[in-house]
């Protein structure tokens, strides 16, 4: 170890000898700092403190001998240079000291050898330190290589595709597990050393890949092909093979690598997906047609009613829905108005809605509201019971000449009248929805209209779209102030929902305004 100043611990009980040793070292140009000790306890304390580059020791002291000192040093500092400097040292003792770990020995009568012995001891210590560091570096490098090799083995065996490494003759050298067992059913020892032909279902596939890719004379280029392979059980399956040359670090071809992938499940999944997509497209097309048909079932033009104007909006939650509105002209002054809400939404509700609408059309033309609803319930009762559904319904007949409205509310309730002065009235009586209980006796209610009065009919989807607004009759009526037409009022009410996406339920509004 190269130091700016050489630090030496000198075990010596004779001050004159110690002074002579120091003089010898400095006279030869060594810059050194020497601590002289003569007792075991002093020597032990100095060792614990450390920091020395070299130990010089007399072989025999009155209460402490050099061999004991050497043993203490080698236990704590095995590489620290240790040189005996003694007045007399027999051949056997000298040999024993060297065997015990002393670097060298110098007789006090021949101190001319001291500096060369010290320099050699220091040089050897440096070489030993370098060697030990090299050994430690090699151990670390070896451990890293082992770790990387283990990582590569784990990675190789973790890949789900089968990787076959083969020589020029396509004899299998390495293969990864458990992929080999999972895909082909073999254990590695069953295929290593054998031709990769056993993995192919057809000999012509094996031969063609050999000619196109694995021939050592062809260009170094990989190729992906779809072939039939054979499992250990004999089962043939469709798979992909990525075939490529195996190269060394200089780019020389040393064999080939085959990557096998079982695509049979993927092929089946792709076929199922195509079929599912086809069914989805067919269903989507049917829904488009159904939406067109349902839209055509709603009235296309507003009726011309003397002294009144009417407007309506219907927004299905899906492409089709269970809400509907309708009107019929019974006579020049009599008009039937209906708003219904079938439980649920989507195709099932839309089909039932069409049935309810048709039943009402059949009985409302020549019957007052209560009788018409009673007859419709009789006709619909079995269908509603079988479908485990029900319908809320508001059905009314407007006499425009008398400016009166007779109505039946079948469990609907989402209706109010806003008078011209802003007062809000809830309409009664109310009965049960259609399909809840048979033989319900429905009672009629009546409303008289004056100029500026407005009746608003709506479905629960208007309220459910924005539950945080708590849209009561009074709050809805307040939004109609200042609106000049029934259409503007209907649009205003629908706009309150913000048209949420997804829309939780069908939204339907019908506004009748007396002018």
Provide a brief overview of the structure.
This protein has 14 helices and 20 strands. It has helices spanning 15-27, 40-49, 66-76, 91-99, 114-158, 179-184, 188-191, 203-214, 264-297, 347-364, 369-386, 461-464, 473-478, 486-495, and strands at residues 6-11, 32-37, 54-57, 82-86, 104-107, 162-166, 172-175, 223-230, 236-247, 253-262, 308-315, 323-329, 334-342, 391-399, 404-410, 415-418, 424-426, 445-448, 454-458, 507-514.
Placed side by side, the strands forming the largest sheet appear as: 2-1-3-4-5
The termini sit apart by: 113 Å
How many strands, which pairing sense, and closed or not: the largest β-sheet?
A: 5 strands, parallel
Q: What is the averaged pLDDT score?
A: 89
Low-confidence stretches: none
**Rg calculated over all Cα atoms:** 52 Å
The tally of beta strands, per DSSP, is: 20
Strand content: 15-25%
User: Overall 3D geometry?
Assistant: elongated
What share of residues is helical?
25-40%
Domain PAS: 148-195
Domain Response regulatory: 7-123
Organism: Geomonas oryzisoli
Keywords: Hydrolase, Phosphoprotein
């Amino acid at each position: 170890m190269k130091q700016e100043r050489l630090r030496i611990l000198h075990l010596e009980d004779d001050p004159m000898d110690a002074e002579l040793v120091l003089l010898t070292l400095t006279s030869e140009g060594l810059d050194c700092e020497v601590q002289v000790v003569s007792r075991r306890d002093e020597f032990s304390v100095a060792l614990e403190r450390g920091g020395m580059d070299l130990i010089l020791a007399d072989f025999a002291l009155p209460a402490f001998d050099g061999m004991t000192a050497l043993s203490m040093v080698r236990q704590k500092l095995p590489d620290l240079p240790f040189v005996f400097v003694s007045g007399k040292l027999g051949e056997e003792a000298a040999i024993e000291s060297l065997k015990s770990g002393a670097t060298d020995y110098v007789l006090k009568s021949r101190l001319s050898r001291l500096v060369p012995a010290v320099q050699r001891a220091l040089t050897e210590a440096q070489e030993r330190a370098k060697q030990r560091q090299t050994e430690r570096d090699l151990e670390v490098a070896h451990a890293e290589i082992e770790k990387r090799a283990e990582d590569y083995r784990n990675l190789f065996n973790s890949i789900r595709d089968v990787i076959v490494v083969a020589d020029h003759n396509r004899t299998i050298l390495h293969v990864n597990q458990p992929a080999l067992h999972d895909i082909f059913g073999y254990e590695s020892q069953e295929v290593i050393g054998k031709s990769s032909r056993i993995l192919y279902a057809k000999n012509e596939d094996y031969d063609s890949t050999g000619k196109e890719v694995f021939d050592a004379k062809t260009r170094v280029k990989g190729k992906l092909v779809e072939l039939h392979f054979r499992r250990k059980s004999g089962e043939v399956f469709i798979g992909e093979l990525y075939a490529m040359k195996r190269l060394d670090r200089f780019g020389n071809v040393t064999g080939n690598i085959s990557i096998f992938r079982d695509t049979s499940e993927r092929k089946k999944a792709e076929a199922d997906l195509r079929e599912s997509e086809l069914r989805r497209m067919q269903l989507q097309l049917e829904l488009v047609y159904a939406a067109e048909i349902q839209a055509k079932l709603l009235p296309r033009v507003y009726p011309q009613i003397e002294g009144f104007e009417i407007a309506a909006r219907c927004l299905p939650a899906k492409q089709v829905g269970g809400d509907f509105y309708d009107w019929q002209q019974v006579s020049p002054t009599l008009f039937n108005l209906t708003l219904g809400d079938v439980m649920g939404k989507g195709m099932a509700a839309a089909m039932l809605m069409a049935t309810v609408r048709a039943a009402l059309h059949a009985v409302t033309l020549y019957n007052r509201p209560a009788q018409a609803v009673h007859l419709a319930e009789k006709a619909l009762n079995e269908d509603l019971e079988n479908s485990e559904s029900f319908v809320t319904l508001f059905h009314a007949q407007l006499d425009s000449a008398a400016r009166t409205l007779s109505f039946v509310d079948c469990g609907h309730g989402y209706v109010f009248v806003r008078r011209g002065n802003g007062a809000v009235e809830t309409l009664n009586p109310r009965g049960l929805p259609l399909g809840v209980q048979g033989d319900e006796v429905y009672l009629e209610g009546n409303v008289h209209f004056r100029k500026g009065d407005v009746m608003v009919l709506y479905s629960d989807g208007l309220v459910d779209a924005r539950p945080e607004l708590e849209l009561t009759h009074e709050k809805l009526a307040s939004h109609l102030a200042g609106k000049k037409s029934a259409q503007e009022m209907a649009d205003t009410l629908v706009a309150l929902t913000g048209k949420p996406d997804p829309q939780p339920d069908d939204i339907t509004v019908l506004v009748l305004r007396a002018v």
